[in-house]
Design goal:
By secondary structure, the chain is an alpha+beta fold. Strand 8 and strand 9 (231-241) form a beta hairpin.
Length: 638
């Protein structure tokens, strides 16, 4: 009985050993057949010894064997270390392969029809950041094949294939991008990739995110990928190139810039300012496009712009340069970042520059539209005598020398009648750096507006007009005329301090420093000083100016001299047919009035010596009260 029981025990041990060996043999055989197929580059046999899931994902492309070699799956003598039955048809097997006894974990599954065990997946033990990580070959193969498909799609430029390899915001941007821009972008991204099957991508995986580096002829491509619903999709791609101008820091960002440019050009050419505003920086829109006539400066259509362009990016700024029929157009794009984390950055066009005359002349749309608008605005303000608008639309120099000095009550007396005739039209605009010349016609009179850039704005610095007996510069003419008219107003208002400030030393010594009020003469000097301008001679080199007002019978000639870098009035020659010489010096008349009316002198004042020439004196020196009509009723201010 004991013998029988002993035999039974031995038989059980032998049978268990045989069964274990048999089980180990089955797994070993399945694994060795799979490894042999890899060694022999036998894709058909490899598919036979793997599940349908593994074949569809990891072996879906004829180039799959090349990518399997990249993973360096170890082959050689295989020893089963551990077997774990997950279910009746599923086993996990740990094996050691080769002399180095590299550990692999195989997922084996039984084929229901044949009962054969095949590979469903395998995991390679890899070191990553001092940690041993088991990486799925299916996931790695799917990633590598997706990279290959990505490169092929971008290389051929097929829109549907490109979109199929991308996901998220990257895909949304590409879907909206004009096909011409997408085709050009795809060539820039993948145009220099190596065609060799030996290219070895370097993939860094972290859960559902991967960064894949792929060699290029002159650098490398870096693809950011994300695993979504079991599929790897690109969320961005960058190109590092040794060649200048071939870098693509982010295809997604470039696509967003190109989308902004495409939308901008479409809205511009459709003259849709409401839509145009969405893609334009606020300062550019408000200061140019909002009031500009877009038809006078046509821009290329999106299709034409995409045919030949360069996109140069530096920090938050980019320049899109396109060539159309020998002409160059540059769209400057700026990146606007939000303070809110969830709000992505956006790109807006902040200026457009047109290059003409083989690039020798450049015109910005801001200059083009604002120059027309500011010239029109200035002309209207001059016609309306609107000091506020004239000051607003002029350079600081023009404003300081003219508009800020004029007495508002006298603005209607400005000698600008020729510049305010009906009918203003712009004929031509020439740009030269910060200076813009606007040739126009006011009625039948040709005029030229000189505009200068100041703090980013074009402002009127002068107006040139060809009028007999006057300087071409309206600014120089008005500067002196404002001086004369203000002088007349000061005489009427008894403003001795102002008269002293704008008179020569000789005039002050002989008259103004000796009186408390303006001596009354027989001539209405203030009224004569606001007579119509006849001629104006100005010699800045010699430092003098002569202004003739009114007629020879009734008018005045004002003599100005330069003193301390400003023109001051040295004398006023009154035109009169009551004296033999036809001219009377205002200094002389005022001196005579001071002598005839001692009460006008300051207390304890000693009169300065004054030599009287041979001129005939007026018989009746008594002067009437001065009440010129121009000063009685204040002029309406703008």
């Amino acid at each position: 009985m004991m013998l029988k029981n002993g035999f039974s025990l031995v038989s059980g041990i032998v049978l268990l050993t045989l069964m274990t060996g048999c089980a180990s043999l089955v797994e070993t055989q399945a694994i060795e057949q799979f490894a042999k197929a890899i060694e022999n580059d036998d894709l058909k046999m490899l598919k036979h010894h793997s599940t349908m899931k593994f074949s569809k994902v990891a072996l879906r492309d004829p180039s799959s064997l090349d990518d399997l070699k990249i993973l360096k799956i170890p082959t050689g003598e295989t020893t089963v270390v551990e077997i774990k039955d997950v279910s009746e048809n599923h086993k996990k097997v740990v094996v050691e392969v080769g002399k180095n006894k590299k550990k692999l974990l195989y997922d084996l599954k039984k084929v229901t029809k044949t009962g054969e065990w095949v590979v469903d997946d395998l995991y390679i033990n890899q070191k990553q950041k001092n940690l041993n990580v088991m990486k799925s070959v299916t996931e790695q193969m799917d990633l590598l094949l997706t990279v290959r498909e990505f490169v092929d799609a971008w290389d051929t430029g097929n829109r549907d294939d490109i979109l199929a390899t991308t996901d998220g915001n990257f895909k949304e941007t590409l879907e909206q991008l004009h096909p011409s821009f997408l085709a050009k972008l795809s060539k820039k991204v993948a145009g220099e990739s190596r065609k060799s099957k030996k290219q070895k991508p370097d993939a860094q995986l972290d859960k559902d995110i991967a960064i894949v580096t792929l060699p290029r002829r002159s650098g490398q491509m870096i693809i950011s990928m994300k695993l979504k619903e079991g599929k790897w999709k690109a969320t961005d791609v960058a190109v590092e190139s040794k060649a200048d101008g071939k870098h693509v820091n982010s295809a997604h960002k470039q696509a967003k810039m190109l989308l902004t440019i495409s939308n901008f050009l479409d809205a511009y050419n459709q003259n849709d300012k409401k839509e145009l505003k969405k893609y334009t920086a606020s300062q550019f829109y408000r200061g140019s496009l909002d009031f500009g006539d877009l038809t006078i400066a046509p821009l290329p259509q999106t299709f034409d712009a995409a045919a030949d362009y360069e996109l140069n990016i530096e920090g938050n700024l980019a320049n899109f340069v396109t060539h159309i029929q020998g002409k160059m157009v540059n769209l400057s794009v700026i990146k606007i970042e939000s303070d809110e984390i969830d709000v992505p950055e956006k790109y807006l066009v902040e200026e457009v520059t047109l290059f003409q005359d083989q690039g020798n002349q450049q015109i910005t749309l801001t200059s083009l539209f604002s120059s027309r608008a500011i010239a029109q605005l200035f002309s209207e303000a001059l016609s309306n005598r609107d000091l506020t608008i004239l000051d607003f639309s002029s350079t600081p120099d023009f404003s300081t020398r003219v508009w800020k000095k004029i007495e508002p009550k006298l603005v209607s007396q400005l000698p600008v009648q020729e510049l305010t005739k009906p009918g203003f039209s712009i004929l031509n605009i020439k740009f030269n750096g910060s200076v813009t010349k606007v040739s126009a016609r006011q009625g039948n009179l040709p005029v030229t507006y000189i505009l200068r850039e100041h703090l980013g704005k074009l402002l009127v610095d002068d107006v040139f007009v060809d009028l007999k007996g006057r300087p071409a510069s309206v600014k120089e003419t008005l500067e002196l005329m404002v001086q004369v008219q203000n002088y007349a107003y000061s005489m009427h208002e008894q403003n001795i301090r102002h008269l002293q400030r704008h008179s020569s030393r000789d005039f002050n010594e002989l008259v103004w420093r000796q009186v408390d009020q303006v001596p009354q003469t027989s001539f209405a000097i203030p009224e004569l000083l606001i007579s119509e301008l006849t001629s104006l001679e100005r010699n800045d080199n010699e430092g003098y100016a002569r202004i003739q007002l009114g007629t020879d019978r009734r008018g005045a000639t004002v003599i100005l001299k330069k003193q301390y870098d400003q023109y001051v009035i040295d004398d006023i020659m009154v035109h009169s047919d009551k004296v033999a010489s036809k001219y009377v010096s205002a200094k002389k008349e005022l001196r005579l009035a001071m002598a005839a009316s001692p009460g006008t002198l300051k207390q304890s004042t000693v009169q300065a010596a004054f030599t009287i020439s041979n001129e005939v004196e007026e018989e009746n020196p008594a002067a009437p009260v001065i009440e010129p009509a121009a000063f009685e009723l204040p002029q309406q201010e703008p």
